[in-house]
């Protein structure tokens, strides 16, 4: 008796452990979720920002809708579909009308040609490139200033998405919009809701090259400043590389720093001027960073600056550059600077024009970087290929500003122009035809240096709110400037004012090919009838037809029996 | 509607087994125990086959068809036959007629095969958003497999359980048993060497399973006549 009881308890213990193992197995099995999408591609979200309280850009990030192409049947309800629009087939008026009429969409996905892909390149015919660039520029302008209550994403064309799009177009051509009951493709982006970027930082990098102080001279040496803003703003923050605006300016500044560090390393050739190099952030936001940087200066330092040259977009010009000033052209200082540039430009076969734009102190809009200098009574000018002052958030290095459209020779010529002009001012060679940075010499402009930095900049998105304090790129710039100057300082500030940014700039899109509910219902019917037929067949063959009929007659016969 | 699709594919894969059990006299004679024992024997056979494959087979770099490896796999496939023999003869069954014994054993065998080979991919794959025809084709393959298992069980029972067989039919019985036992090798040859697509292979399997079922039914009834 005792033995059987113990064995019984042992059995039960074994059974209980078996049950727990089985239940654990069930839990594990229920948690298995594999990704089995037809395609998974990287997508980049449209920027989301608030300016002075008004909302702009795409306000949502998560996506879970069916896909449709531009050939959707007219009159279809698109509030739960994602429109896939390749840039080549873009009709800008269609998009503009859609946005202006505030029609509701499930989402938008723009497919960009490979030439705008920073990691890639590809050379296409020139006319097609220019046309695509203009279309993209216009699209960006439209999207940045619109408020879109649905997710908008950019992706690059590749084989997978091209085949998917061709399939979608074929389905749309038959006239059936894709919904839950008709199958098709489903686009899913599982990201959480975008949150505000708290306290976005802007980092100004300054490098100081000291001039040669004569013995016994107590006065402060005069300073020449050269400044370029390094951050960008575009429709997709993860794709805003800004090769021309202002990658070209940064590269030129670094090369000029390198050349002058070579000159100043030898005390015999060190000039009697200090050189101040400034890489500022916050450019697109009315040069906020430059203002904070200047405000942090000592009053004496600010007064010692002879003049400041700001570089802005000098990468794709052919023979004409502009010097923009805010002081009137007949001002003595302005005349001196402009004539210095003009002399060098004539020798280098460049046309240089002078443009004057007055500052309105009450207007917070700062179109050029030199205006921040002028507001603090420092003579400044901006050298640029852009003839007219850009609007707010225009020419800030968007998606269309890619590496293909930048010309290294333009940058090298610009570097020669600025470096020679500086050298003549520093060493007092005005009017003399002396070429310090001549080609082939030890101080020649290094095209390989220009090219490698330009390539790096064309692969690095630089939207300021998404660059952290210790971002590797900022550290790289600091290190490079430290190589060429005596002293480098970083200044961290908070980007305040009218701009607020939201995160979630890139994601992975999963494309699933789904079958409709109708298909599964039909399948259920077919399977049900198959099983019933199989059942009847087996009953007939093994037991006989009478048994099959008796199966249906059984309740009736039972009633008869009991009665 | 992905759980829906999983449910559909599950009833396609496992439904016929349940239907077979309830439709034929197997349910009346309560042969569930036999089927369960046959399923366990299948499990054991599968483990033995795995060990043999791991020991004797070489892993080839290319995905091509190596005749020697395939012949070796076919030989290992005969372990299936041995397993069926064990299930039919060595296990103690209740008093069931031979007619029903092979059906019960074949049913349990096919059910275990479906569960082991098809349940996990079905659970993991058919519940996802992405739609493929694979799981429906897999269900059809399970159906073909059911028919093949029952025919194989019938032929094995003929070989070893029935004592008086007409002499002329014995080689045919062995030949049919050989064909059915080497079906997996044949399908893999078709898939790799001739590069047939999955639906075509499934169609071939269904067709041959019906043909073999018919042939084995004829053989079984022919052998039954003298003793009846």
From TrEMBL, chain A:
Pfam families: Nicastrin (PF05450). Its main location: endoplasmic reticulum. CDD domains: M28_nicalin_like. Signal peptide: none annotated. It is found in: Endoplasmic reticulum membrane. The keyword Membrane applies. GO terms for cellular component: endoplasmic reticulum membrane. Gene3D superfamilies: Zn peptidases. SUPFAM superfamilies: Zn-dependent exopeptidases. It is a single-pass membrane protein. The chain crosses the membrane at residues 521-545. Keywords: Endoplasmic reticulum, Glycoprotein, Membrane, Signal, Transmembrane, Transmembrane helix. This is Nicalin. One of its GO terms (biological process) is regulation of signal transduction. Belongs to the nicastrin family. It comes from Hibiscus syriacus.
TrEMBL record, chain B:
PANTHER family: BOS COMPLEX SUBUNIT TMEM147, SMALL SEVEN TRANSMEMBRANE DOMAIN-CONTAINING PROTEIN. The keyword Metal-binding does not apply. Its main location: membrane. It comes from the Eukaryota. Belongs to the TMEM147 family. This is BOS complex subunit TMEM147. GO terms for cellular component: endoplasmic reticulum membrane; plasma membrane.
